[in-house]
Design a protein that fits this description.
Number of strands: 0
InterPro entries: bMERB_dom (IPR022735), F-actin_Monoox_Mical (IPR050540)
Keywords: Coiled coil, Membrane, Monooxygenase, Oxidoreductase
Subcellular location: Membrane
Shape: elongated
Strand content: under 5%
GO molecular function: monooxygenase activity
Number of domains: 1
Distance between the termini: 52 Å
Protein name: MICA1 monooxygenase
Length: 154
């Protein structure tokens, strides 16, 4: 087993572990966002009740509650944006994993001697190459989507 093949295998395992760790971190953050959503929702409900039920309160108090409610809405919108970014990151990780698997398959076909390749091997190699191009294009679309979102936020 040549050294370069061992190196490629090791790098593939390392990148797979990195993707796995990133996926776990994203999942944890999505769960945190979900909990925060629920908390913000509860706070918002309390503030709305105060605003409706305490219509006789001083104007300063009502203004303060309204400002708190607007702050909660802004915080929720920021979390929704972050959640959207994380969902895109999840899709990107899936595509990255697909790309690595296809790279590995393609490399195994390309390492085969041309004289030993059958017609089926040639077709399989072309199909994998086609799938690889599709995955790369999908990743490109995700990156463009992220860039558009970033620019729209500015």
């Amino acid at each position: 087993y040549p050294t370069w093949k061992r190196t490629l295998a090791r790098r593939a395992r390392e990148s797979q572990m990195k993707r796995f760790c990133r996926a776990q971190a994203i999942q944890r953050r999505l769960e945190e966002i979900e909990v925060t959503f629920r908390e913000l929702e509860q706070q918002g409900i309390k503030l709305e009740k105060l605003l409706r039920d305490e219509s006789e309160s001083p104007a300063d108090q009502q203004t303060q509650w309204t400002n708190q409610l607007l702050y909660l809405v802004q915080k929720k919108n920021n979390l929704m944006t972050e959640e959207s970014d994380l969902m895109i990151a999840v899709q990107e990780l899936k595509l990255e994993e697909q790309q690595c698997q296809l790279d590995e398959k393609l490399r195994s076909y390309m390492n085969k001697e041309d004289t030993l390749k059958t017609a089926e091997d040639e077709r399989a190699e072309q199909e994998i190459l086609k799938q690889l191009v599709e995955v790369v294009n999908k990743r490109n679309v995700l990156i463009q989507l992220q860039e558009e979102q970033r620019l729209s936020e500015l």
